[in-house]
Design brief:
Layout (H helix, E strand, L loop, with lengths): L3 E3 L14 E4 L3 H11 L5 E4 L1 H9 L6 E4 L2 E2 L2 E2 L2 H6 L5 E8 L3 E3 H12 L3 E8 L5 H7 L5 E6 L3 E6 L2 H17 L6 H9 L5
Parallel strand pairs: 3-4, 3-10, 4-9, 7-9
Antiparallel strand pairs: 1-8, 2-11, 5-6, 10-11
Helix pairs in contact: 5-6
Length: 196
């Protein structure tokens, strides 16, 4: 699995914040509301099984989708599992435990952003923090979508200031792990995307 950033318990409350605009609703309703404001993003990245399912269900095809076959810490329904598998995607898989951002996940998102193909990243473990590197790494003008359990879907429009906000947040994890020199390898990879 290689190097990883581990979210310490002391910082968890900060990472529960909503990083974009929340669109409330059940099922396709929230995604339909959100799609009115999405525009035509440079890259559209969807994080989470339920969000991705509802996007595909109303024929919005993300450039990159990140799923783990789970929702709210339990297995996703068969309908969602089948609904997130789409023929138009190149599939890649990574290991990424809950509460962690691995170097493998960062590399997979980086490769997907650089690809001209639609990419489905399947996470063995959990994609609970995957929206953060996706926000930092996506080109400006992109959009990252992720689910807010029992509430709806969050739309994050990628701007310089949004990248700086996420950069500051992730730097807090790095400070907690700064005794580990290997963390600098991950940090350098993410640093290259701050000003995309």
């Amino acid at each position: 699995m290689g190097l990883k950033l581990i979210l310490p318990d002391t910082l968890r409350p900060l990472f529960r914040n909503i990083f974009g605009v929340l669109y409330t609703g059940i099922g396709d309703e929230a995604v339909k509301k959100m799609s009115m404001d999405m525009g035509s993003p440079t890259k559209l990245i969807s994080v989470g099984d339920v969000t991705t399912f509802h996007l595909l269900n109303i024929n919005i095809i993300p450039d990159i989708l990140i799923v783990d076959d789970r929702t709210k810490r339990g297995p996703a329904s068969d309908r969602v599992l089948v609904g997130t598998k789409h023929n138009g995607f190149r599939e890649t898989s990574v290991d990424n435990p809950a509460g962690v951002i691995t170097e493998d996940l960062i590399d997979a998102i980086s490769n997907a952003i650089d690809s001209d193909e639609n990419v489905r990243i399947f996470v063995r473990g959990e994609e609970d923090l995957a929206a953060l590197p996706a926000i930092l790494m996506a080109p400006e003008g992109s959009a990252v979508l992720y689910g807010q359990p029992d509430k709806g879907v969050v739309l994050v429009k990628i701007t310089r200031s949004k990248k700086e906000e996420i950069w500051d947040l992730l730097s807090k994890i790095v400070e907690e792990q700064n005794h580990d020199d290997k963390i600098n390898t991950i940090w350098r990879k993410l640093d290259g995307y701050q000003y995309h």
